[in-house]
Structure formats: C-alpha cells, structure tokens
Amino acid sequence: MSFNHYFNNKGQASNLLLVTNKFERPPMGGRQMLCKLNHDALYHIYGRRLTLLEVEKKPFRCLFDIMYGFRVYIDGVNAGFINSVINAIKFNKIDCIFVDGSNFGEIVKCVKKIFPNIYVLTFFHNVEARFFWGSLRQSMTCQSLAVLYVNYLAEKKSTKFSDKVICLNNRDSQLLGKIYGRSATHISEIALHDTLPPNFQSLVIHSQQRYILFVGGDFYANRVGITWFVKNVASKIAGKVCIVGKGLERYKDELEIVDNVQVLGAVDSLAEWYLNAQFVIAPIFDGSGMKTKVAEALMHGKKVIGTAEAFSGYEEVADRAGVVCNAADEFIRAIADTNKMDLADFAQDLRYIYEKKYSFEAAKERFMNILDFKS
User: Fold this and answer.
1) CA 270 – CA 243 distance, rounded (Å)
2) 5-12: long-range pairs with CB below 8 Å, 24+
3) Cα(325)–Cα(233) distance, rounded to whole angstroms?
4) Looking at the structure, do residues 128 and 210 belong to the same domain, yes or no?
5) In 3D, which of 133, 135, 111, 108 has the Cα closest to residue 123?
6) Residues 251, 166: one domain?
7) Same structural domain, 162 and 216
8) Would the pLDDT of 325 be above 90?
9) Average pLDDT of 54-71?
C-alpha cells in the first residue's frame, strides 16, 4: 500500500494523530525518553498538523484490573479513551495515526475497524510478549502471567491491524514473525535527545581517578545483570565500579559486597558521571528492544564493554563502540586490556557514531522516509 503523507488523496495537507504514553517531565527511563523524542521528531515534521493524545498508564493493582485487562484494556486504555481517539480523528480530519507502543493494540484494531482508510503505524519499543516473558521467569506469580498474556493479546492486534510496523532492530522483527506471523515493515533504531552539556569539558575532573560505570534503572534485567557482574567479575578487576540508576539504591547491601563497588542510585547529573568514567559496562543478559545505556554512553564519548544482548541492534557499530563479552573471563580480560589503554576523556569518534545513527536528526530522517514524507 502506497501512501504519501504530505498530501492526502484530495491534495490537502495530511494530519497526523500521535497516541503515546503520558509524558513525564522530565522523561525518566529509556522508554519515556524515546517516546518524547518520537513526539518531537513527528512535531518537527508535521507542526500544527500533529494532534497529540496521551494515555495515562495505570498499572495492575488488583484482580479486577487483571480481569479488565483480558478485554485488552491495559496501560490506561479503556472505552472512554478509545472514544477520545475516534473523536480526535473526526474533529481534526486525521488520515494517519502513529501509535507509540504495541501495547495499544485495542486502539489500533478499533481505528481500523471504524476508519479502514486511515493509515496506522505502530512503533514497537520491545516485543512485549518477550519482555514480559523474561519478567515472568524472574517472578513466577499469577499477576506476572496475566500481565504477559494481556500484553500478548494487545500486541497481536497491533501486529495484525497496523499498516506499518516499526521495530528497533532486526532481532525484534524476526521475533514478531515467529510469534505473530508478521515481521516489521521498517527498522528505526533507538535515538536520544542530546543531553551533553555545552560546557561538558569543564565537568571533567582530570586529576580524579577514573571509575567503571554502570547505568540502569530498577528493572529485572538490570538487577540480574549487575548482580552477576558484582559476584563474578568485580573482585577480579582493577578499578572502582560505580552503579548509578534510580531505584538501585534499594540493593546497596546486596551489591556492595566487594570493596571496589559503590552504589549511588539516582544522581543529579548523569552527564558528570559519564564524563568522568573511564568506560561503561553493560552486563545485560535478557530483554528486548535496544538498550538506552549504549547510545547514552556513545553520546558522552565513552566506550562500552557489554554483552551481546546489550549490543542487540548495535551490531553494525559494536566493534567501534566497545567490546562484546558474554562470560566472566571475557569481561575480566576486556577490562584488563582497556585499563592499559590511554583512553581520551571524550572520544569524538564514539560521539560521531551517536550523531550519525542515534540522534534526534537521525530519527527524524528515518521517520520522514517511513512516512513517505516529501517536503
């Protein structure tokens, strides 16, 4: 199906509706950051022809919420919100809708049933079925199983009823094909707004002893990964390991079992911690999508030593961005080799990779191609 989104079939400038999670201000976490960037890129393309509808996420709290979820009313989506979507389409003369999340499959299905000529694009941050399967394996509860199942149902509808399916990497696209029988139509890698301060060089403390940095929020893959690293690698390497990320301070007693490990948790200036690090580690063994911390490290001109999972979606640049390790002895050897290098405080070649592939401008260009947008 061919569709030019600059003009509709009547020769009029087309209007885009964006459905996304309610924005946190400032956005916290990789998914929120990417949602905000997607919005800003689309607004840069469409301007006032973009209509925004935000879904306020409501986590499962009780049995009733779970039962409600089996109607695929999850993450704040309900009959009232779907009605708001329908009204927004009519009022704003929408001919294209960008759904930012495969968990909004009930919206996708309803829009295509009521407005079959409206073009629907869905952006998959993860393969949610795979993501929640990993979560279930860490916490075998009835609630975890129910969350997995209702996300599977929602994602199945997104895959079936969307005109274009956008994934972050080929791994997720292939997994969609295995689970739902349809792969992605387009790949658009992760991208981040540039948060490198203009005076970043003044934040570098040259006399300070460098440390090894781990950055990640409190979710299962980060907890499992950094716990594994502390138990199997930290005591066998030279250098201090600093663990930064909102919520990780809860695990201070569990992680500070080795003298060279320090848990900071949430920090005021993430840029300062990146800039004064020797390099970044990403011992992540499970998940879906792409890992924000790798692009973030590249933004700050830092090398990454991480697992194949951490570099999923970054395969094209992995040999330039850092070192791929999957076992403890590989991490120990890679860190020892890197410690011998005279690494620059800020590696411009790594920063260039970010600018070329994972920046706002890179994402905007990809969206213009996906949307068949002609200026």
Assistant:
1) 11
2) 5/96, 5/119, 5/371, 5/372, 5/373, 6/372, 6/373, 6/374, 6/375, 8/95
3) 12
4) no
5) 108
6) no
7) no
8) yes
9) 59
Angstrom distance (rounded) from CA 173 to CA 127: 8
How far is it, in rounded angstroms, from Cα 304 to Cα 294?
A: 7
C-beta neighbour count of 26 within 10 angstroms: 9
Asked which of 63-72, 144-153, 199-208, 227-236 is least confident by mean pLDDT, the reply is: 63-72
DSSP 113-137: HH-TTSEEEEEESS-HHHHHHHHHH
Report how far residue 241's alpha carbon sits from residue 260's, in angstroms, rounded to the nearest whole number: 6
> What domain count does the chain have?
2
Interatomic CA distance for residues 5 and 8, integer angstroms: 6
Tens of pLDDT, residues 143-196 = 666 777 787 888 999 999 999 999 999 999 999 999 999 999 999 999 999 999
> CA–CA separation, 180 vs 373, rounded Å?
29
Encode pLDDT of 84-132 as tens digits.
999 999 999 999 999 999 989 999 999 999 999 999 999 999 887 676 5
Residue recorded with tokens 């979507």? 85
